[in-house]
UniProtKB/TrEMBL annotation:
<dbReference type="InterPro" id="IPR036508">
    <property type="entry name" value="Chitin-bd_dom_sf"/>
</dbReference>
<keyword id="KW-0325">Glycoprotein</keyword>
<dbReference type="InterPro" id="IPR051940">
    <property type="entry name" value="Chitin_bind-dev_reg"/>
</dbReference>
<dbReference type="GO" id="GO:0008061">
    <property type="term" value="F:chitin binding"/>
</dbReference>
<dbReference type="InterPro" id="IPR002557">
    <property type="entry name" value="Chitin-bd_dom"/>
</dbReference>
<keyword id="KW-0732">Signal</keyword>
<dbReference type="GO" id="GO:0005576">
    <property type="term" value="C:extracellular region"/>
</dbReference>
<keyword id="KW-0677">Repeat</keyword>
<dbReference type="Pfam" id="PF01607">
    <property type="entry name" value="CBM_14"/>
</dbReference>
<protein>
    <recommendedName>
        <fullName>Chitin-binding type-2 domain-containing protein</fullName>
    </recommendedName>
</protein>
<keyword id="KW-0147">Chitin-binding</keyword>
<keyword id="KW-1015">Disulfide bond</keyword>
<feature type="domain" description="Chitin-binding type-2">
    <location>
        <begin position="1"/>
        <end position="58"/>
    </location>
</feature>
Length: 105
């Protein structure tokens, strides 16, 4: 069982950055963020990864950089200007992101 840090509020679910704990009267429930959003522990809300949501640092093994990931940076999912740097969520690991700059990872 999960112990809530306080009786109510939203708290990070460290196993999956697209989820969070919703605590009500000390009872924790795992809740999903909307599609493409991640939980921001600083605000207590789901947010766009591009808003510099703090993540737990992880070491990315070389096998995560597969050739099929090369096209991840061809289109900015947030609209942005061409050439603008943006983050793209790793398709297999929710707590990993690629930094895209001018079409390259």
């Amino acid at each position: 069982p999960v112990t809530c840090p306080s009786a109510s509020g939203q708290f990070a679910y460290t196993a999956d950055c697209a989820k969070f704990y919703q605590c009500d009267n000390g009872v924790a429930t795992v809740t999903n963020c909307q599609s493409q959003l991640v939980f921001n522990p600083q605000t207590g809300y789901c947010d766009w990864p591009a808003n510099k949501v703090p993540q737990t640092e992880i070491r990315i093994p070389p096998e995560m950089f597969k050739p099929q990931f090369a096209n991840l940076c061809t289109q900015n999912p947030y609209g942005g200007n061409p050439g603008e740097t943006f983050l793209v969520r790793h398709p297999e690991y929710c707590n990993a992101f690629f930094t895209c700059t001018e079409g390259f990872i």
